[in-house]
Specification:
Length: about 350
């Protein structure tokens, strides 16, 4: 692992592994002259991307949507376990610290979305946002790309499903409540642990667990259907909290709940093992043994049907515990789909309006 010559307070990864697509790599070595306290702090940088289209299609059998939008590439939340980290390699950057400090913003996304929704052959279905990187990560405060996307979706009466850890979603309650009145929105809020100290290490720039639970309460109070996501479940680290998280989420107003086992694709495996060695060396072997037990001896199995939850006795035990607790609390496995029957392309200035 390549450690940058900078201090990294509030970051999840502690290194910058080489990009797997690069033929050559550069290793940085400290010369011993500068004391660690004098090193610069690694700051967040944001570049602009202007894509030709913004809706991404997928055919994965493991997920329940066929289209999504990502307002940002990379995520300043810095969750060390994030399965999206390897996607940064496609941009010529590292899935490590680059993923959480060298971000890509897509400020043209709202207008591109408007163009794509206006095409004659477009047909509506729930649009997923936040499935790769969080639309309510800290840089959204300045860029406000997600808010402008929601304005377009409301204008078109288009259904949307949002996944976030960010409490900044409360800023958009005015738009979200209007979408909810039309049965056009569903929100999933991720709560990995109730332990604020552990959360700070795992998800350094994510709001504290109690604050996320208050967000569930505010969304629910505004008439928005909310799903609590116990994600990821980390063996020997957070697995004992499943019932407690579900109980707190239900008290806050969540109507449904789901779970996903920790996933360690590609570079995420090395980053997470490095994190374990640094913060929980006494449990590192146990955590990895459980994961490998569920994935045929490997850190991760990417096969459809197995990658989200694993296989074997331990995976079955977690699934059973979750089912029993959710049923006892009256939490559904899925929220009902938002309606797509209200979709319309709003008239542009100069268009001939219908008489009826």
């Amino acid at each position: 692992m390549d450690r940058p010559l900078a201090r990294t307070p509030g970051r999840g990864a502690s290194s910058n592994p080489a990009n797997r697509y690069d033929r050559l790599s550069i290793a940085v070595e400290a010369d011993g002259w500068a004391p660690e306290d004098d090193l610069p702090v690694l700051r967040t940088e944001v570049q602009v991307e202007r894509p030709r289209k913004v809706i991404t299609r997928n055919t994965s059998p493991d997920i329940c949507f066929d289209r999504s939008i990502n307002p940002y590439r990379g995520c300043e939340h810095g969750c060390v376990y994030c399965y999206a980290r390897p996607s940064h390699a496609w941009l010529g950057m590292s899935p490590g610290l680059d993923f959480e400090t060298r971000l890509i913003a897509r400020p043209d996304a709202p207008e591109l979305l408007r163009t794509e929704l206006s095409k004659p052959r477009y047909y509506p279905a729930p649009l997923a946002i936040g499935t790769n990187t969080d639309p309510y990560q800290p840089v959204e405060r300045e860029w406000q790309i997600m808010r402008r996307i929601l304005e377009v979706l409301l204008e078109f009466r288009h259904p949307v499903a949002i996944v976030t850890k960010g409490t900044m979603i409360e800023r958009d309650l005015d738009i979200l409540s209007e979408l909810a009145k039309l049965d056009l929105v569903r929100v999933g809020v991720s709560v990995t642990t109730l332990d604020a100290g552990l959360a700070r290490l795992l998800e350094p720039r994510v709001p504290a667990p109690d604050r996320r639970l208050r967000t569930i309460a505010r969304l629910s109070g505004a008439g928005i259907l909310v799903r609590a996501m116990v994600s990821p479940v980390i063996p020997a680290l957070t697995d004992h909290e499943i019932e407690a998280i579900l109980a707190r989420a239900q008290q806050a107003g969540a109507r449904a709940a789901s779970w996903i086992m920790l996933r360690l694709p590609l570079e995420v495996s090395g980053l997470f093992r490095e994190w374990l060695a640094e913060h929980y060396p006494d449990r590192a072997a146990r955590v990895m043994a459980r994961l490998r037990e569920m994935h045929g001896g490997q850190d991760y199995d990417p096969e459809f049907g197995r990658r989200m939850r694993g296989e074997g006795p331990y995976a079955e035990m977690i699934a059973q515990r979750f089912r029993v607790a959710a049923a006892r609390l009256g939490l559904s496995e899925h929220l009902p789909e938002p309606t797509d029957s209200l979709f319309r392309v709003p008239p542009k200035p100069g268009d001939q309006l219908s008489l009826f």
